[in-house]
Amino acid sequence: MTFKKKQKRLVFFLPNFEVGGASESILKLTKFLIRYNFSILVISIGKNYYKNEFRKINCDITELKSTKASLSIFKLRKLMISESKKSFNKIIFISNINYANIISILSLINLHKISVILTERSSISELKYSDNLIKNFKNKLIYLLAKFTYKFSDLVVTNSKFEKKYIKNKFQLKNVICIHPPSIKEIIKLNKNNYIHRKIPNIIYVGRLSKDKGVFVILKALKEINKKYTFLFNFYGDGPDKKTMERYIKINNLEKTVILKGFNKDKNLIYKNADLFINASLWEGLPNALVQSINYNVFPICSNAPGGNMEVIKNGKLGISFKTNDEKDLQKKIITFLNKKFKLNNKIRVKHLKHYTELKSNLEYLKILNTF
Length: 372
Known about the structure:
There is one protein chain. This protein is of the alpha/beta class. It has two domains: about 10-180 and about 355-370, Glycogen Phosphorylase B (Rossmann fold), CATH 3.40.50; about 190-355, Glycogen Phosphorylase B (Rossmann fold), CATH 3.40.50. It is about 40% helix and about 20% strand. It has 14 helices and 13 strands. It has a seven-stranded parallel sheet with strand order 3-2-1-4-5-6-7, with helices on both faces. A six-stranded parallel sheet has the order 10-9-8-11-12-13, sandwiched between helices. Helix 3 packs across helix 4. The longest helix has 17 residues, at about 135-150. The radius of gyration is 21 Å and the shape is globular.
């Protein structure tokens, strides 16, 4: 790639650049920013699953070889020293996710040409939760290091108002702003086809199949509901707990009701035939799938977990919440929906969704980057 003098260099750092919300948000943002004379470098630790798409838009790619993120500090520093010697008038380093943010600050000590933006795409309060002794110690260490290192950044960007308030208060920082992720391309206009009444309700989950996403909370609730109600539940996604979920479904005779559909990129296929969407996360950032459910006019039930859930459902005006990690409360809320068939208020829906469009998110980032 040829470098233009006086260009700003944007460096995006995400250790695990695998299929997921954080990776897709960065890809969408780079596709937008590349048109504004930014030179862009994307750094991952190990394989970047989106590298071909980044290369199509003339982004540079570096895949650091390291067995652990913590061991990549010196490699990352060496790379950024090399970058700082190039003919860019400014380098803006944008790190993603708490532990990567700590690594970034440590790697960039005394590299004064480089401005550092830290982004929180989940809720840092997740580090307060763990049912594993070793992981609990590791999480507490990361939390303490984040609390110490974040003050050395030029800016912290959160993707929910909850997280902005949390970091400001807990870390005693002033340079914290909220920019919502690019959850939707555009707001879907509703017509009569969006109000189909199905004899058998179709309930969906979209996301990673892991314990922290509350998938077993959902399954436990469904086990009881299945005794009295007829419904179909589709899990869309993949993850580390898929096999355990399959065993649970089989042991509890849910095979005819609950189906693991796997990962599917076709949002229209996922949402168009759904009546109810469930998010049962123990913590969240700003859940794209929850926003998308509202965009497709699929009524959501979500946990009141730390993060952006309550913000997305407008504190109950665009959905129902249940107590985090409480399958009985989720069971009660699902049954309430099955009995009453709630619908979203379209006027509130459209007005609220304007906060989560791709264009709005990208323009807010552009505005911030132009201040550096």
